[in-house]
Specification:
Blueprint lengths: L4 H5 L6 E6 L5 E6 L7 E2 L3 H15 L3 E6 L5 E8 L2 E5 L15
Parallel strand pairs: 2-4
Antiparallel strand pairs: 1-2, 2-3, 4-5, 5-6
């Protein structure tokens, strides 16, 4: 897939998901964020919360192996249990902090 980034930049949406059946995995995807500072998210857990129920229904299985094929890419192991999606895989810590809530 060779996206037209100029055309995608005109899309008024928080994100655009593209997905297809995979060869070595159950499905592949890419996630573009036209209105964000980072145009393509390398690996997107929230997108897989939408993709997993779709592919689980289509493939008639609840444990799925996925790959997000952005330039950095990532591999996800996903399970659909009732109305919940559980995702496993390698992650990179990008933020650490403390939040205080005053009464």
């Amino acid at each position: 897939m060779n996206p037209d980034f100029r055309m995608l930049a005109e899309v008024d949406a928080r994100g655009v998901i593209v997905s297809a059946p995979g060869n070595e995995v159950d499905f592949v995807s890419r996630f573009f964020t036209p209105q964000a500072a980072v145009f393509e998210d390398p690996v997107t857990g929230s997108a897989h919360c939408t993709l997993v129920p779709f592919w689980a229904n289509r493939l008639e299985k609840t444990s799925l192996h996925a790959r997000q094929i952005s330039p950095r890419g990532g591999e996800l192991f996903c399970d659909l249990k009732d109305d919940r999606v559980f995702i496993r895989g390698k992650a990179v810590k990008y933020l650490s902090g403390t939040i205080e809530i005053d009464d």
